[in-house]
Design brief:
The structure holds two protein chains of two kinds. By secondary structure, chain A is of the alpha+beta class. Chain A has seven helices and six strands. Helices cover about 35% and strands about 20% of the residues of chain A. In chain A, α1 packs antiparallel against α3. The longest helix of chain A is centred in the last third of the chain and has 19 residues, at about 160-180. Chain B has a single domain (about 20-120), classed as Glutaredoxin, CATH 3.40.30.10. Chain B has helices spanning about 5-15, 35-40, 45-55, 95-110, 120, and strands at about 30-35, 60-65, 80, 90. In chain B, α3 packs across α4. The chains are: A alpha+beta, B alpha+beta. At the A-B interface, α1, α4, α5 and α6 of A face α1, α2, α3 and β2 of B.
């Protein structure tokens, strides 16, 4: 895997295969703590204690086409090589939660990459699953869910090509905005004119009421 | 920045065009392998390219979906094309560019892109 968003896609697909009704993908980037956390939680069929212990072993897999399963081991490796930790908790009939932490500025931390594409796929290709996406970058948060989108779509499927394309762009723009937050209106109790930048008329009416 | 209000406008347009899609008898299916092997080899941009090309050309009788491991991991990214009444075509070692070409040549014009098929990639005796 070249980027963490691919690990997210791969591990979240396991949740889909576990027949989850709700899948949460939560990404937290904290610059001050120099830490990144990726949490993927589902309410799927869950796994027994024995099986949960086995899934980080590359030579364990549920598939029948061959004898190795690398999805979870790759994710664990990505965290551990970037100064982070990995955990997986599961209970039969309740669900599974996978957590990976990373040193945000660690030289071996893979970039998050195109997480918008990952979420677009998870949301649009799983019409009957509610995918919840929450992404925090320091003080900024972006959150969206399949249920929220389905409410707007009112019966029009998420998988229609033009809807998919829109959702992809919607995710991309909102996620990118997390990294470039709009500068807050400067707190200027004096209303100092010299420092004031040129404003358009609309701004005049909406900002800085004393 | 795109908002959910714009999605609402798009919904109304899509609803008008719906109906002829999905269960139509001439429905063509494109299925992309999306297990660990496919994802690691680059299946995500391939699937996106299929969807974008289908959307761009306004093809109503085509659905793009994903499946798990097809079992030929060394040939990933892999996609299978099902045209009703014809043999299944398996395309291997795909890229976004190849996916776009498959939509134009195979889906729109009915010519299998032989160079990208598993038959062309498999070692010959």
């Amino acid at each position: 895997m070249q980027e963490l968003s691919l690990n997210v896609l791969d591990v979240a697909e396991n949740s889909m295969r576990a027949r989850a009704k709700n899948v949460t993908v939560e990404i937290t980037e904290d610059t001050a703590a120099d830490r990144m956390e990726i949490r993927i939680a589902d309410d799927g069929c869950g796994m027994s204690k024995e099986m949960t212990e086995q899934v980080t072993d590359p030579f364990f897999t549920t598939r029948t086409t061959r004898k190795v399963g690398l999805g979870v081991p790759f994710f664990k490796m990505a965290a551990e090589m970037a100064g982070g930790e990995f955990s997986i908790m599961s209970e039969p009939g309740v669900g599974t939660e996978t957590r990976a932490t990373f040193g945000l500025s660690h030289i071996d931390r893979m970039p998050l990459g195109d997480i918008a594409s990952t979420m677009q796929l998870l949301i649009c290709d799983h019409e009957d699953v509610n995918v919840i996406y929450r992404h925090r970058v320091d003080a900024e948060t972006f959150e969206v869910s399949s249920d929220q989108l389905k409410e707007v779509l009112d019966g029009v499927p998420l998988g229609l090509p033009e809807i998919r394309t829109f959702i992809g762009e919607y995710l991309k723009e909102n996620i990118e905005a997390l990294y470039h937050p709009e500068p807050e209106a400067p707190a200027d109790p004096e209303g100092g004119q010299a420092a004031e930048p040129a404003r358009n008329e609309q701004d005049m009416n909406t900002t800085m009421e004393e | 920045m795109k908002s959910l209000a714009e999605l609402q406008a798009l919904r109304d347009k899509a609803r008008v065009e719906m109906g002829m899609r999905e269960d139509a008898p001439d429905n063509i299916r494109i299925v992309v392998g999306m297990a660990t092997c496919g994802i690691a080899a680059g299946a995500r941009p391939v699937l996106n390219a299929f969807v974008n090309e289908v959307a761009k050309r306004g093809l109503k009788n085509v659905t793009v979906s994903q499946t798990g491991c097809i079992g030929i991991c060394q040939y990933e990214p892999v996609a299978e094309v099902y045209v009703p009444g014809q043999e299944k075509t398996t395309y291997v070692k795909l890229t976004a560019e190849k996916a776009a070409k498959i939509v134009v040549d195979h889906i729109v014009n009915g010519n299998v892109v032989t160079d990208y098929t598993i038959g062309a990639a498999a070692p010959t005796k």
